[in-house]
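Lab notebook page, bench 4
Experiment: in silico fold of construct C2
Operator: M.H.
Input chain length: 657 residues
Purpose: comparison with the prior construct
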Amino acid sequence: MKKLNISSRRYLGSKYKLLDFINETIEKNCKEFHSIFDVFGGTGVVANYFYEKGKKVYINDMLKSNYCVYRAFLGNERFSEKKIEKIIEEYNSLSKPKDNYFSKTYKNTYFSENDCRRIGYIREDIEKKSKDKKINEREKYILITSLLYSMDRIANTVGHYDAYRKKQNLKDSFEMFDLDIKQSKGIKNEIYNLDSNQLMKEIQADIAYIDPPYNSRQYGDAYHLLENVAEWKKPKVYGVAKKMDRSNIKSNYCTNKASNAFKDLIEHCNCKYIIVSYNNMGQKGNARSQAKISDTEILEILNKKGKVKVFEKDFNFFTTGKTNIENHKERLFLCEVCKQENEEVSYNLNINNEFAKSPLNYVGGKYKLLDQLTKRFPTEVNTFVDYFCGGGNVGVNINANKVIAVDKEKYLINVLNLFKTYSYTQIIDKLNDIISQYNLSNTYINGYKYYKCNSSTGLGSYNKDKYLKLRKDYNKIKEESEEKTFKFLTLIIYGFNHQIRFNNSGEFNVPVGKRDFNASIRKNLLAFCEKLRSKNVEFVNIDFKKFKIDNLTSEDFCYFDPPYFLGDASYNENNNWTEKDEKELLKYIDKLNKKNIKFALSNVTQHRGEKNNILIDWAIANKYNINYLDYNYDNSNYHSKSKANVTEEVLITNYSI
């Protein structure tokens, strides 16, 4: 008779194909270990893999059907193989049992009527044999598991029980298979059917392996029929899919409570290592498939427990629809639990080949142009000087031995130095303190409903008075300090379009915005801080004219992104960049050219029907190269959609590209 092993079933998110990846990651990064806690056991293949390697296993799952599987394959009690084989032979010889609960409930849906009668009879008989002491506890669970696996092999579904295929004349095809189970190795495994967050407080193991649900698809919905058979309480069912009440097995990890649940789980974890398996769905696929916990949240939470590394592997994602999801990766977040006082932390995001977006939404920022710009920059640079660095998008993403980011706006340089001085977690903690102090919204933790707002209308109505109080307090602070800079950063995050603007009196005057310190900004902040930590970057608060070029050589490179003379951005509202400034800049750049130092100047030759003849004539007279880029600053003049508002974005260089 053919025997089924623990992986012989169809199950959402099964890690069977990732076992070698998980094992390799553990072997290379975890010191000797003797026990592993599979917190969300699912199929049980991970726990079984390490049990086969002689490790003690703690395994848990909310579903009773999975608990039965664990008791069968990983149980400690001895069982009689001959007895099991004989009972299964008897079940397979059944012809036409009487009508029963299962056949009355499910006939001609997931199974044929006769197969339903056989399944119902077998499940009832297993219960009777257990009550009469003809089989022990493990033998009972082996028989239930054999029944569940055998049902799953022929079920009229696509692998789960949210629905069944509408077929006529379902064939009788049920056959009960034996399981490939070995007697206990003498290792006392511990098997649970409890809430994971509660159980985590009680378990102490060397490794906690955490593979929670990723999206809104409740496992109780997907496997309700198997759950019904496992529990055998014979409840009423309803709807086309014949589901019973599943409220007791709904998981918070499939809802907007997922982040808070995960945070609580990790806080109470008492293990040497924590390994979290989570994919990179993010905003891919349809809404039901999108991950409920962001990478940023996972990293923030794990980092409070210890040192974090991230490993990833390409993997085919299961989707019930027609969504084509490309570049899907399964990731392992590995945390070595330790105290981290006064210790710098690296998240190891593997971001070296990706552009990090500045969390400062500075008008005219070049993040969207980075791919075009970097392809036009010299490939080998000793010192890269980023004049008018703004939010830092260019300088932080450049490969050079040293980067000097220059800007005359001290408030910008102060914030950028915060990103350089403090770790990501320290910045988060300080911002959260200010958010809490002023009672500003924090949808990252609480969601929109908590503040009686929604994403469409935004949070302005809730935050307005609190934001204005913060803005007033900020403007009262005259001396430069880190407290002032952190408050300034908070104002940017909660301000309209995250803009930076001051009035003639030097007071910050941006009104409240629609958003708050959400996952998107946190993600940008994390990536930016990590990229910054990997570079040799110096931020200099000085006017460009005062930056001395005497020490620069032909091996260095200068990039200029000044306020645009034709621009209508907020930094130009008070005539802050004049014709005189434009001419002084071009004269300064000419000095670099005479020293054989390569430069690149971002600017526009045409904007809103006007041409910058000063710039054009200068470039032509000096035989500089005018390289046209594919981009328009729609956000610089969001009031108008006229086709006449053509902007010609250029990169002027003294070298050929």
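Observations: Residues 281-288, 317-325, 568-574, 633-643 have pLDDT under 50 and may be disordered. The chain is about 35% helix and 15% strand.
Next step: discuss at group meeting.
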